[in-house]
Amino acid sequence: MNKMVEVQRDRDVPTPGQLLDRARAMLPALRARAAEAERDCRLPMQTVEEMREAGFFRILQPKRWGGFEMAPQVFFDVQMTLAEACMSTAWVLGVVGVHPYQLALFDDRAQADVWSTSPDTLISSSYQPVGKVERVEGGFRLSGRWGFSSGCQHCDWVFLGAIVPPLNPGDPMDMRTFLLPRSDYEVVEAWDTFGLRGTGSHDVVVSNGFVPEHRTHKASDGFLCTNPGQTVNTAPLFALPWAQVFVRAVSTAAIGATQGALDAYLGIVRERVSSNTGKVSRTDPASLAAAARVRAQIDEMKVQLAANFDRLLGKVTAGEPLSLEERLMYRYQSATIVPRCAGLVDSLMPLLGGRAIYRSSPIIRFWLDVNAARAHVANDPNNVGPDLGGVLLGGAPAVHFC
């Protein structure tokens, strides 16, 4: 390891409670900057720097590279907290903040390439397998245009998905993540959406970039938990299946955003009196029942999230195998979160009458952002439900990202 990056000493690592306090302290500023992020289609630099200074991007990073090496539950608690004020901020933290975990699975030379200069280096991504790959001596040549690279304007490296051509006819598909420095790609502003605008998920373009072999990560290694990085990052955390950590990074912000929507809803309901019927919302049984339903389901989703990772970490710590059925179940449960949250927020809107539909309404941004998150492929339960059902009937799944 480069001497410029010291092993993170335990006394320098904040507690989970301290990280949550830091996240909670940021909420007023995030609310104040939400309109700016939406207008500019990117997070304000100040927001990214405050998250960096708070240590949020280091939560899943190895201690040997200056990280905190904490349980995923801590990371997701911080993400949900930030989402109560700004889902775009929480989404960027989820995506960019989970990348130190994946980098820890790469060959250690790739980790040194990124972190030897600074443990605070950030990586964006787009895992769409749209790139063109050519095998060359020592690695690959990569070209293509990838969309949906959240937070890319604030990052110095990128993970890009592509399929490596098979060496022999009949060889299995070799899906990989390619790691490239900022000098090897161009960011093209193309993000103009109805929701999650502040994520700045612009396009990334690569023209015949060289990627050495050690800067690639095989999807098969992520599935089988045979990642080269596990030889140096030996904590049980890094024995988790990569997909289990990633899919929650793109669904969990919706839970916090639903809490933010509920808070906005309650603020309106406390004062609302219908101009047509004279009905007082704060005493209306339907309005009160809706608040109770949403609050209870937020708690259920949080409890399930924590319980799943408790079981996952418990098994890998004990050296017990993870069954395919439970891995598919956890991935399916993650995929249901965003549609479920969208339904909950949507159920609140009609109870607020005309006040809810103005762009100035405190609930409207949460509604738009949660619905935009449904577009992510990992947030569609139909993509994994048939595999889970098939395994329950004794079959084999077609998808191995779980």
Automatic annotation (TrEMBL):
InterPro entries: Acyl-CoA_dehydrogenase (IPR050741), Acyl-CoA_DH_C (IPR013107), Acyl-CoA_Oxase/DH_mid-dom_sf (IPR046373), AcylCo_DH-like_C (IPR036250), AcylCoA_DH/ox_N (IPR013786), AcylCoA_DH/ox_N_sf (IPR037069), AcylCoA_DH/oxidase_NM_dom_sf (IPR009100). Keywords: Monooxygenase, Oxidoreductase. GO terms for molecular function: acyl-CoA dehydrogenase activity; flavin adenine dinucleotide binding; oxidoreductase activity, acting on paired donors, with incorporation or reduction of molecular oxygen, reduced flavin or flavoprotein as one donor, and incorporation of one atom of oxygen. GO terms for cellular component: cytoplasm. Gene3D superfamilies: Acyl-CoA dehydrogenase/oxidase, N-terminal domain, Butyryl-CoA Dehydrogenase, subunit A, domain 2, Butyryl-CoA Dehydrogenase, subunit A, domain 3. Residues 30-106 form the Acyl-CoA dehydrogenase/oxidase N-terminal domain. GO terms for biological process: fatty acid beta-oxidation using acyl-CoA dehydrogenase. Residues 251-380 form the Acyl-CoA dehydrogenase C-terminal domain. Belongs to the HpaH/HsaA monooxygenase family. This is 3-hydroxy-9,10-secoandrosta-1,3,5(10)-triene-9, 17-dione monooxygenase. It comes from Nitrospirillum amazonense.
